[in-house]
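Each field is set out as follows.
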Amino acid sequence: QVQLVESGGGSVQAGGSLRLSCAASGRTFSSYHVGWFRQAPGKERDFVASITWSGNIYYADSVKGRFTISRDNAKNTMYLQMNSLKPEDTAVYYCAAGFGITSVVRPADYVYWGQGTQVTVSS
């Protein structure tokens, strides 16, 4: 069982930066594939980035070169550094964890979810 709690969301102007954190409970955090998704009003939940237990990293094309995902297993925490933010990045951001992921971009493959944190980027 893993419980996830996001923090770090907020409002920022276009071109600005934010750093999201996802704190996890449970001693097996290091064994999980963890990732970030986002959901804008009226839209589906979309994949943003993920990182496997071994450190392999995946990004959505829309955030490559701007966002950086990382994890600190000693602290049971995952991060998403978001730079050069755009208004289209506005969404609720969720962290997620799963085991035996077959498709990193598919929300259904992740078992555990945080409550979400709002990110708003103004032009």
DSSP finds no helices and eleven strands in the chain. The first strand starts at residue 4 and ends at 7.
